[in-house]
Specification:
Number of domains: 3
Number of strands: 0
Radius of gyration: 47 Å
Number of helices: 24
Helix content: over 70%
Oligomer: single chain
Length: about 650
């Protein structure tokens, strides 16, 4: 209230008092003067109180400003000072905030109000900028390093590639790689302290004063930007790079497979560790402010999450080659296991688009895996060969398909669920809970058995490329035995069942017997019907048998039976067929033509049969034949030969 206003009120007050002293006033006039007297007295009191209030505000504002300015000047980092300094600073800032609230409650007609309000808001703005700076400093100084135990990663090297393992005849199979992958991805719940626990109350105090001062947007902007950058740095630690869809589609398989491994590790770490830890920190700092914590978490994480999701989408729409299947299934299973984390991290409406994107990627990965799985049989059928595979051994296609199949036991439950979704079925139990009819007839089992049938048909076509019918049977025996042996001795055998295994054991045994008939029938025919033949005929048959055996030896030492047990069984079976017949023939003709026309003994044949199927061609050279004949003579007639030599 100005001085002029005070003088007017005082003059009016004296006039009223003088009028009240007049005796000839009516009652109504006296009541009016009495009311006016009361109003003038009140106005005088208000004026006096307002002056006092103005002085009080001035003193409070000046004191708070001096405290804040002094603390700014004397301390480069207030939160690095003692708790008393921090408390004094927060109290001064809060004093300015409360003064602003008081001033804003006064009627706008008071001319002095705006001056005080402008001063207070200027001071508050300066303190809010300082608080943002202090916040960044606290976060930067107290953030925790990403310790090795908080980075989950596969145990197998990223240089291992599915494709190499699938087609390899030696060493690791795809089954081995997949088992290492599966076991390495078993994880525990990890929550790490992103900042030192002691500074959480400090960060919270800054948040509270900034929110109370209506600078909540500025706090969240600073807080979110810091943690957005930290998450980007975490992805760098995990060797994750940002690629466009075109980049992914152009990648060579080795490079892409390595990137997929890094992606799986990254998505598991980001959702399973980092964002879980970040959510805890955000809730500690912003939990008192409703859904702000969830909103900030979305803003801090969406850029990095979209980077991971975009890579996944690019892989899902890539070419549907067989070697991609296990990578897609690994990606699908990792993502499926993390969907509960996604739902927990982003439960609010603001995070719905992240939830939707994760579910959409999961669907695309599942669809792509189903397409590859169902098309695998066509992929096998499309393979062509113009030349027979050398030595009748296991064809790369057989090795490829069998080792591919061996890994399905790792993914049986997942594939059954995916196929059930396609067929509209509902599988309440996983396929591996029983090894009975349910497992054998589940969608995966049916398809795997179909794949092996296609492989067998393809092998049969390939076997016709061999001119030698015996080698055709060796080829079929080798490949079917390999298929049965691998499947029977692995967990994937439950998808085929005992009947399938028995049938296929019978198949390779049938080819083994067919080999013996086609190889040895004509040779053994030379040893039969010898009772009514002359010496010349017997000599010729001995020579013909030796030539036939030598030719067979030269050819079949180059043939290869990889499995040692099968190779030994085939040799034993051959010996049991050949040796008795040869022994009987020799015993019957010895008296007729003598020993010198019998080129090989029983022991010789047994020894030579042991050389078969080694995959390294050998020959029975004439010099060796002569030496064998001499040694045989020595064994039969030691005394005579010894005397001649002497």
């Amino acid at each position: 209230m100005g001085d002029a206003e005070k003088h007017v009120i005082a003059a009016a007050y004296h006039i009223v008092k003088a009028l009240e002293a007049t005796n000839n006033l009516s009652n109504d006039m006296r009541r009016i003067l009495a009311d006016l007297d009361v109003h003038l007295s009140t106005m005088t009191t208000i004026g006096e109180n307002e002056a006092e209030k103005t002085r009080e505000i001035e003193n409070r504002l000046r004191s708070a400003q001096e405290n804040i300015t002094g603390l700014h000047s004397n301390h480069s980092r207030i939160w690095n000072s003692c708790p008393a300094i921090v408390s004094k600073y927060l109290q001064s800032v809060d004093e300015v905030r409360r003064l602003i609230e008081t001033l804003e409650s006064f009627p706008s007609k008071r001319t002095w109000k705006q001056d005080f309000l402008d001063r207070a808001q200027c001071i508050l703005q300066i303190t809010m900028a300082r608080l943002q700076d202090e916040l960044i400093h606290i976060l930067a100084q107290s953030k925790q390093c990403f310790k090795q135990e908080y980075i989950l990663h596969p145990t197998c090297e990223e240089t291992s590639v599915y494709e190499e393992s699938i087609v390899s005849n030696e060493g690791d199979s795809l089954e081995d790689v997949s088992q290492r992958e599966s076991s390495s991805m078993e994880t525990e719940e990890y929550v790490m302290d992103l900042v030192h626990p002691d500074v959480v109350p400090q960060i919270t105090s800054i948040a509270n004063i900034m929110f109370a001062s209506h600078y909540d947007h500025e706090f969240c902007q600073t807080f979110v930007r810091f943690w957005r950058d930290e998450l980007a740095e975490y992805l760098t630690i995990l060797n994750v790079e940002q690629f466009s869809v075109e980049d992914v589609l152009k990648m060579e398989w080795r490079c892409l497979n390595s990137r997929i491994r890094k992606w799986r590790r990254a998505v598991k770490n980001v959702l399973g560790i980092y964002l879980t830890s970040e959510k805890r920190l955000f809730d500690q700092v912003l939990g008192e402010h409703g859904s702000i914590s969830s909103t900030c978490l979305v803003e801090a994480s969406k850029a990095s999450l979209l980077c991971l999701l975009n890579f996944g989408h690019a892989v899902a729409i890539g070419p549907h080659r067989p070697e991609w299947l296990y990578c897609l299934l690994d990606m699908y299973e990792v993502l499926a296991s993390l969907i509960p984390d996604v739902e927990s991290l982003f439960p609010e409406e603001g995070g719905s688009f992240i939830r939707i994107e994760f579910h959409e990627l999961l669907r695309r990965l599942g669809d792509a895996a189903k397409v590859i799985f169902m098309e695998f049989g066509n992929h096998i059928a499309s393979r062509t060969s113009r030349k027979p595979y050398p030595n009748g051994c296991i064809h790369p296609l057989t090795n490829y398909v069998v080792n591919y199949i061996l890994c399905f036991v790792e993914y049986g439950d997942t594939l059954n669920l995916l196929l059930a979704e396609k067929d509209g079925e509902n599988l309440d139990k996983g396929p591996n809970e029983n090894v009975g009819q349910m497992t054998i007839s589940c969608p995966v089992a049916v398809h795997l058995q179909s794949v092996t049938s296609i492989l067998e048909a393809k092998l049969d076509v390939m076997s016709n490329l061999y001119r030698d019918s015996s080698l055709k049977h060796i080829f079929m025996m080798n490949n079917i035995h390999y298929m049965v042996d691998k499947i029977k001795n692995s967990e994937v055998g439950s998808y085929f069942g005992d009947e399938w295994i028995r049938n296929h054991i019978g198949k390779f045994q049938h080819h083994a017997m067919s080999y013996e008939r086609s190889t040895w029938s004509s040779i053994l025919g030379l040893l039969r019907d010898n009772e009514k033949t002359g010496k010349a005929t017997l000599k010729e048959r001995c020579r013909d048998f030796s030539i036939a055996f030598e030719d067979m030896y030269k050819i079949q030492t180059a043939w290869y039976v990889k499995n040692l047990e099968l190779r030994e069984e085939l040799r034993i079976s051959t010996s049991k067929t050949v040796i008795p017949a040869y022994r009987n023939f020799v015993s019957k003709i010895t008296n007729s033509i003598g020993e010198k026309y019998i080129k090989y003994t029983e022991h010789d044949l047994e020894t030579y049969i042991l050389d078969l199927f080694e995959g390294s061609q050998k020959s029975l050279k004439p010099s060796r034949m002569k030496e064998v004949t001499i040694l045989s003579s020595i064994s039969l007639f030691p005394t005579v030969v010894f005397n001649k030599i002497m």
